Amino acid sequence: MIRIARPFISEAALTATLTLPAPAKLNLMLHIVGRRDDGYHRLQTLFQLLDFGDELTLTPRHDTEVRVSPSIPDVANEDNLITRAARALQDATGHTGGADIQLTKRLPMGGGIGGGSSDCATALVGLNHLWQLGLDEDALAEIGLTLGADVPVFVRGRSAWAEGIGEELTPVELPEHWFVVIHPGVHVSTPALFRHPQLTRNTPVSTIRTALTGAGHNDFEPVARTLYPNIDHAIEQLSQYGSVRLSGSGACVFVQTQSDMAAQTILRTITERNPGYSGFIGRGVNQSPLQRALADQA
Ligand SMILES: C[C@](O)(CO)[C@H](O)COP(=O)(O)OP(=O)(O)OC[C@H]1O[C@@H](n2ccc(N)nc2=O)[C@H](O)[C@@H]1O
Ligand SMILES: Nc1ncnc2c1ncn2[C@@H]1O[C@H](COP(=O)(O)OP(=O)(O)OP(=O)(O)O)[C@@H](O)[C@H]1O
């Protein structure tokens, strides 16, 4: 555990409010190449950050309370990854202040696009700044990893090639394409998919260079398509517009386009044709809007 002396916090910092983005990610490819002794799967994946996501407004409190509003249906305040991030920071540093956190949720839950993980990372990075804790990026990524395998990439804020369980990150420069992301109205449980007996867990190890050519696939896709007919249907519908991939363990599927306008047309067509589906358009970014917003504060 990281322990630092409790820093002095000015009265001005206690009245400050910080609004920060929590962007989505896509897994442009995701290979499962093995399993660790603790049951976690070893992956190779290409994380593409998007300029679309949730938003958190953080206001410090004098007491130790951490309150997220509005609450997420079926998720208790103390289980919300935002609250858990704040608690982990308090535990690591001995900080005795709290926060009121307003959450603007735009990313579908259980979408495979890292909504909860990104909220968690934004809370870690934002509260570290607001509470003047002075933890560096490595320390925040380490705390983040205890809360979710997808948290470190959002803390570090670069599109990246990832290995291990997603925490061994190599930043990459990807073309900043537009993406249409479709959520086919089903909620996928990541642990349930990782446990599935039919999941491929022995894809041969690839290289970053191969992945950057656009080669690769998502090992979750066959199982997700079998278990969730809507995912299968969404992939079929989108495939007329290009190469379709599943993100993470699903449920979101996506296709790349050359322009915002092309993306708008596809999104409108698919969501009008399928009333249970929703979606959004995001532009791929190499640097996270979170780190850019924080740099603007400095
Ligand atoms: C599928 C991905 O989204 C790809 O980016 C991530 O690997 C999942 O990351 P995440 O949602 O942050 O996952 P966590 O909250 O850490 O783990 C949820 C559960 O998924 C399983 N899990 C997760 C990550 C991993 N590499 N292997 C696993 O087997 C574990 O059973 C774990 O208890
Ligand atoms: N702030 C939060 N936002 C979303 N989900 C949260 C949050 N806090 C806790 N959760 C829980 O985490 C679960 C997974 O949510 P999330 O939206 O991150 O899934 P995901 O997009 O599939 O994530 P990943 O791509 O990292 O696997 C939710 O079903 C919910 O129970």
Automatic annotation (TrEMBL):
Active site: K25, D150
Top-level EC class: transferase
Domain GHMP kinase N-terminal stretches: 80-157
InterPro entries named among the record's database cross-references: GHMP_kinase_C_dom, GHMP_kinase_C_sf, GHMP_kinase_N_dom, IspE, Ribosomal_Su5_D2-typ_SF, Ribsml_uS5_D2-typ_fold_subgr
GO biological process terms, semicolon-separated: isopentenyl diphosphate biosynthetic process, methylerythritol 4-phosphate pathway; terpenoid biosynthetic process
GO MF, any single term: ATP binding
Keyword Ubl conjugation set for record: no
Keywords of this entry: ATP-binding, Isoprene biosynthesis, Kinase, Nucleotide-binding, Transferase
NCBIfam families, per database record: ispE (TIGR00154), PRK14608.1 (NF011202)
Functional description taken from the UniProt entry: Catalyzes the phosphorylation of the position 2 hydroxy group of 4-diphosphocytidyl-2C-methyl-D-erythritol.
PANTHER family: 4-DIPHOSPHOCYTIDYL-2-C-METHYL-D-ERYTHRITOL KINASE, CHLOROPLASTIC (PTHR43527)
Protein name: 4-diphosphocytidyl-2-C-methyl-D-erythritol kinase
Organism: Saccharospirillum salsuginis
Upper classification of the organism: Bacteria, Pseudomonadati, Pseudomonadota, Gammaproteobacteria, Oceanospirillales
Gene (UniProt): ispE
